[in-house]
Amino acid sequence: MIIFFFHLGFLLKVYKKRETKKNLQNFFDFSVRQIELSLREIGYGDATINKKMKDYVNLLFSIIDKIDDWENKNTKNQIKILKIYIGGTNNYSIFVEYFEKYRLFLTKNSFNNLSKDIITQ
């Protein structure tokens, strides 16, 4: 889930100045709804889902806050951010390289191209 939140965070970050708030909100709502549906499919009850969704949304916003100026941070500081959320590895530089490539990919592609099957305008 953490890796998904990093992807979603970068997507929202990159497109926040290039896309309408309505489209980004629709995409965010769709993503949150899909997470909730997945929890329901697993069999969690309403009370558990509400608690988990609150925790997940707070985690997502925390990640978004930390990556806000990602491209201006050096690799050491980017690794510090990743260490907060991702454990169990000693090779954070792979994640730094991956997310930098992903960020650049997003900057070179339109939001509509990436979300055309999710959001109808």
What class, by secondary structure content? mainly alpha
Q: Give me the count of strands.
A: 0
Could you describe the largest sheet, including whether it forms a barrel?
none
Oligomeric status: single chain
Order of helices and strands: HHHHHH
Number of domains: 1
3D shape: globular
Mean pLDDT: 92
Question: Briefly, what is this?
Answer:
This protein is mainly alpha-helical and 121 residues long. It is built from 6 helices and no strands.
Present the secondary structure layout.
Elements: H1 2-15, H2 21-42, H3 46-66, H4 75-85, H5 92-107, H6 111-115
Tell me what the structure shows.
With 121 residues, this protein is an all-alpha fold. The chain has one domain (2-115). The chain has six helices and no strands. The longest helix is centred in the N-terminal third of the chain and has 22 residues, at 21-42. The two termini are 28 Å apart. The mean pLDDT is 92.
Features:
121 residues, mainly alpha, 6 helices, 74% helix, 0% strand, globular
